[in-house]
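Hi U.,

Before I forget, here's the chain from the pilot set. I'm dumping it here mostly so it's searchable later in email.
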Amino acid sequence: MDLLGLPLTADGFLDVRVAGVICLLATQWLKRYLPDWRPTNLLALVITVAVELAATAWSGQGRWFEAVWAGLVGASLATFGYETLSNLAGWAGIGPRAGTSHEG
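Structure:
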């Protein structure tokens, strides 16, 4: 199964793009139900790596390092990309970060 160019099989989950999507989904769900909880991004990272490890276990390939690495890189790209876009939107006066001071 292939959705928008993302491989959605157990083997395909070892793709950094899929890990990034998993992290984005986990982050959005966590922010919805735990809005004031600070370590949301850390929990999203743990969830992403856990899903990647489960996918490698399910596929039976035993590519553990690749699973951890894909989860770490995918979650990092998703988290830092989301934060960068949120900050840029805030500086442009759009979104929940609009009007907040970003000066040191």
